[in-house]
Amino acid sequence: MKKAILFIISSMIVFTGCSNKEENTNYPIYEGTVVYKEVKHDKYRFLMLQNISKEDLENGNPEKFAQLAQDQEAAFYSLDKENYESIEVGQKVRITTDLNQYESNPPLRTALKIENINE
Asked: What is the per-residue pLDDT across 33-91, written as a single tens digit (0 to 9) for each?
């Protein structure tokens, strides 16, 4: 009887540890153009807009980008230094984010994965 209970408990621990919840989670994915990058208090983030003209991108500033963000799906994305340094303003990217979002305008999301979109 003790062996059966020990087997059941061991099986529960092994099977619980082997399950991977991340594989079953559908993380949000967003696409757009990096329009602004900044480092504040050792925090790395960038602003991405879904739609922006070349003229607005070249002539814009943070205030103008924030204004454009009001009319479309736009957000700031926080990320680590390595990924921050791998992206450039004007680059089209696909971002996978976690499920949480900080309420601001535009919102702040955490980037889990960044892919360059070649167009």
From this structure: 998 899 988 999 998 988 888 888 888 777 777 777 777 778 889 999 999 999 999 99
DSSP 11: H
CATH code for the domain in which residue 68 is found? 2.40.50.140
Reduced to 3 states (helix: H, G, I; strand: E, B; else coil), residue 104 is: coil
Whether 5 maps to a domain, the answer reads no
CB atoms within 10 A of CB 22: 7
**Continuous segment of H or E residues that includes residue 117:** none
Owning domain of residue 101: 27-116
In the chain, which residue ranges form alpha helices assigned H by DSSP?
2-18, 21-24, 54-59, 62-69, 81-86
Report the DSSP beta bridge partners of residue 115. Answer: 94
Q: Which two tokens stand for residue 23?
A: 């594989």
Measure the CA–CA gap between 96 and 113, rounded to whole angstroms: 5
How many CA atoms within 13 Å lie on the side-chain side of 49? Answer: 22
